[in-house]
Amino acid sequence: MNHYDVIVIGLGPSGSMAALMLESYGIKVLCIDKEKEIYNLPRAVTISDQGFRMAQLAGIEDIYERNSTTLGGAYFTDKNLEIIGGAIDLNNFITQNGWPPSSLFHQPYTDQAIREKLLKTNVEMLLGHELIGINENENCIDLKLHNLDNQEKVELTCNYLIGADGGSSSVRRILGITQEDLNYNRDWVVIDVELRCDNRLGDCLIQVCDKERLATFVPSHLPFRRWEFIIHEHEDKDSFLEDRKIHELISKWLQPSEYKIIRKAVYQFHSVLAEKFQMRNCFLIGDAAHQAPPFMGEGMMSGYRDAINLSWKIALSIKKNLSSNLLQSYELERKPHSRFVVKNSAGIGELMEAYAEAENPEQVPSDLVDKGYGSFIIPNLLEGLFYKGKANKSKHSGEIFPQPILYRNKKIYKRLDHLLGKNFAILSKTPYEISDENQDYLNFLGCSSLILEEEYLEDNPWLESFMKQEKIYLVRPDRYIFGSTDSSISLDQLIDDLKNRIGI
Q1: Final residue of a domain: which of 299, 322, 337?
Q2: Residue 146 contacts by C-beta under 8 Å, 6 or more apart in sequence?
Q3: Distance (Å, rounded) from C-alpha 352 to C-alpha 84?
Q4: Is 476 helix (H, G, I), strand (E, B) or coil?
Q5: Would 492 be classed as within a structural domain?
Q6: 398 occurs within a structural domain
Q7: SS3 for 372-417, per residue?
Q8: What is the DSSP letter of 262?
Q9: How many domains is the chain partitioned into structurally?
Q10: How far out from the chain centre does Cα 160 lie?
């Protein structure tokens, strides 16, 4: 019976990201999917600045660069497309993650390129197979599969199982993990088109707050465009898949001769969260763990965060035999974060409804407005694996360390993460001293060290600000800050705390 360090069920974006990251750490990975080919129609369409940074960690940022367009802004409008809120200008702007705030891509292009990337790695794939059983014992996890071609049964074992198999997850169902409903359930029709005319629709996402029918226009990556329209309870959902109806819905923007329909589907936009993200050595990531309405464009990004967060923890657990506290921090960190994204994605939908019902936008309650606009700001980690000493936490614990574009001789050199590797890292402006024991521990973890040259700080206000405030930072592989030094916290104390919490 074949045995693997990790088996990933599902080869969508989240599963592919987990596989790429684990393989980069030298982990023996098998990916299993029911489908033999990628889904050749668009689903996800946006990648955030942090999404690009995560793609960079996995070595696939070039795939998104080749197949994306920067989003120009995001607006709420009335039924006549007059702006009533938002007006977020995102063009020509690089965030502290080192990438534009939000970009638009065509998923079939990127998924195919990522699949080709995976095929060039040591990741093994078993396609056309369906998971039918999980049995976790003391030593390993036993899996039973169904070969969809010849109907034979296949048995495999692994140390860790990752369920990345979507909203109808077999892993979640077999493990008996229930879901929490966060009370946004609406039927919408999603329409993707390919333009047959010159683009005159702009590069801004528009939330149309029309009482008769809420709608969203997504500019997508040229030549593609997307519309989403709410379906009311009394309406026949199937009728919204008829070309005649689609032409009617899009008529405010384009005439039928100006586009080709490439995808049409009715979805229930809903907000659900798995009650557990982890059951012993089985984990849920992506849509298997959480599903949110698409208004925030963070569905795939949340799956990427899951994959990045979990992969380095599993890798260290396998390679260094560290304590279970490390793996238990996955749910502790990712579940509250995912809840925020799910609730605030639904909040944008609720804000659209409030704007549509109000005679004047100023009548909309401020808490709804704040929820809608604030949802674009992804929070720091509030609980999890970061320094908790006498002062409970250091100043920047749980924040993401900024990734500026670094310059040498006034020319672009590299983005910061390219210099840090894939493990823990220490960043400082000046050389530092620690005990021999702690240096040995850092070597054991594969921790890198970077002394930031003054030239790196020039024209990088985020980095300069961080380095002024604190002396030394201990940064995790996913670029969240474990802790930072100040007058009362030394680097040795940070390392001692890390040792106590994840083991030696």
Answers
A1: 337
A2: 129, 130, 131, 132, 152, 153, 154
A3: 11
A4: coil
A5: yes
A6: no
A7: HHHCCCCCCCCCCCCCCCCCCCCCCCCCECCCCEEEECCEEEEEHH
A8: E
A9: 2
A10: 21
Residues 331 and 420 in one domain: no
Which of the given ranges, 17-26, 266-275, 383-392, 470-479, has the highest pLDDT on average?
A: 17-26
Contacts of 272 (CB under 8 A, 6+ apart): 179, 180, 181, 182, 290, 291, 342
Dmax of the chain from CA atoms? 74
Q: Find where tokens 């983005």 sit.
A: 415
Whole-angstrom distance, CA of residue 206 vs CA of residue 211 = 15
Based on the fold, state whether residues 11 and 141 are members of the same structural domain: yes
- Say whether 245 sits in a helix, a strand or coil: helix
Tokens of 371: 């929820």
302 in the same domain as 449: no
Cis before 223? omega within 30? yes
Structural domain includes residue 74: no
Q: What's the CA gap between 140 and 57, in Å, rounded? A: 29
Amino acid present at 312: W
> Same domain, yes or no, for 299 and 427?
no
Q: Is 448 exposed, middle or buried (0-12, 13-18, 19+ CB in 10 A)?
A: middle
The whole domain housing 434 covers: 405-502
Straight-line distance from the first to the last Cα atom of the chain, in angstroms, rounded to the nearest whole number: 32
> Using only C-alpha atoms, what is the Rg of the chain?
24
Q: Are 496 and 422 in contact (CB under 8 A)?
A: no
Is 172 within 8 Å of 163 (Cβ atoms)? yes
Does an H or E element contain 194, and which? strand 179-195
* CA distance linking residue 308 with residue 22, whole number of Å: 9
Residues 32, 113, single domain; the answer is yes
379's tokens: 């929070």
pTM as predicted:
0.94
| Domain at 429, CATH number | 3.40.30
Give the C-alpha separation, 315 to 423, whole Å. 10
Which one, of 27, 114, 121, 12, lies nearest residue 422 by Cα? 27
Determine contact, residues 382/343, Cβ cutoff 8 Å. Answer: no
Q: Any idea how long the chain is? A: 504
Given a contact cutoff of 8 angstroms between Cβ atoms, the answer to whether 282 and 136 are in contact is yes
pLDDT tens-digit series, residues 128-181: 999 999 999 888 999 999 999 999 999 999 999 999 999 999 999 999 999 999
C-alpha 342, offset from chain centre: 12
Report the candidate in 192, 188, 213, 15 with the shortest Cα–Cα distance to residue 115.
15
Cα–Cα distance measured from residue 407 to residue 65, given in angstroms and rounded to the nearest whole number: 20
pLDDT greater than 60 at residue 199: yes
**Distance of CA 242 to CAs 27, 105, 448, Å?**
48, 26, 57
| 31: three-class secondary structure by DSSP | strand
How many CA atoms does the CB half-sphere of 421 hold within 13 Å? 14
Asked whether residue 394 is assigned to any structural domain, the reply reads no
Overall average pLDDT of the 419-440 stretch = 94
Q: Any idea which residue has 């197979």 for tokens?
A: 129
